[in-house]
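hey
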């Protein structure tokens, strides 16, 4: 995925269409299940299973990979993820995260059971693996023979993203030298997705900051579609259906 404002708008539109089943599960949580400050209070195991109920289907390509335990374990490395601000904001962030990642990994088809948008988390590797996605980065040079196509819930792409992510996760150059760790280790896979979600990549704000309202647009942002997209993402009607955030992995 490339681009800034254009991709933000595209992601917003796509995620609105692609996460209907996800958002129903997230936004209809009973108040009794929303007590406490931890992530499990916003998205308990039963909700995770209901949202992503087809991920282990034989027609998907990820049986047994994307688990609730792996998600919670990964999220613990990012204490502000899904725990920032009030309950409504926290719900919005988790809904947007699963909306966007479900869109990135969708395996649905027009007449799929429960509709084409209920089949998120069906892929852990990009379908088209022909491109190396190798940028001429001096800081994060590509390893011989490796390809940096999309992997994991956010479909992490390009060598410089694998390099930065590996460093941030304390893995040094492991992801750069072995990018398929994002598709073979479920905790690392979720960590990579949450890392990208939480990380500012100037001039782009992080998805987390946009969704939680922490991002203050500059005059330059206001003059571009980036600000328009952010307003659309945080629209109270749209957000209750869980839009996708401004991802560009």
């Amino acid at each position: 995925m490339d681009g800034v404002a254009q991709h933000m708008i595209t992601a917003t539109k796509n995620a609105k269409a692609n996460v209907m089943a996800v958002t129903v599960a997230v936004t209809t949580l009973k108040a009794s299940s929303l007590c406490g400050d931890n992530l499990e209070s916003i998205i308990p195991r039963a909700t995770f299973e209901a949202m992503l109920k087809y991920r282990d289907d034989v027609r998907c390509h990820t049986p047994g990979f994307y688990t609730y335990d792996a998600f919670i374990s990964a999220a613990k490395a990012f204490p502000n993820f899904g725990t920032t601000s009030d309950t409504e904001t926290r719900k919005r962030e988790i809904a947007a995260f699963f909306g966007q990642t479900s869109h990135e990994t969708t395996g649905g088809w027009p007449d799929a059971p429960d509709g084409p948008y209920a089949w998120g988390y069906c892929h852990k590797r990009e379908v088209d693996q022909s491109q190396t996605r190798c940028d001429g980065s001096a800081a994060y040079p590509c390893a011989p023979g490796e390809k940096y196509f999309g992997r994991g819930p956010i479909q992490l792409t390009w060598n410089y993203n694998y390099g930065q992510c590996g460093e941030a996760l304390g893995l040094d150059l492991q992801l750069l030298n072995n990018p398929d760790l994002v598709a073979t280790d479920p905790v690392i896979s979720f960590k990579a997705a949450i890392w990208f979600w939480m990380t500012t990549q100037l001039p782009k704000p992080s998805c987390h900051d946009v969704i939680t309202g922490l991002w203050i647009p500059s005059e330059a942002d206001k003059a571009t579609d980036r600000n328009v997209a952010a307003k659309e993402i945080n629209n109270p009607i749209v957000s209750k259906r869980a839009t996708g955030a401004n991802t560009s992995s």
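Confidence is low (pLDDT under 50) at residues 1-13, 27-35, 235-248. The chain has one domain: 5-124+186-240.
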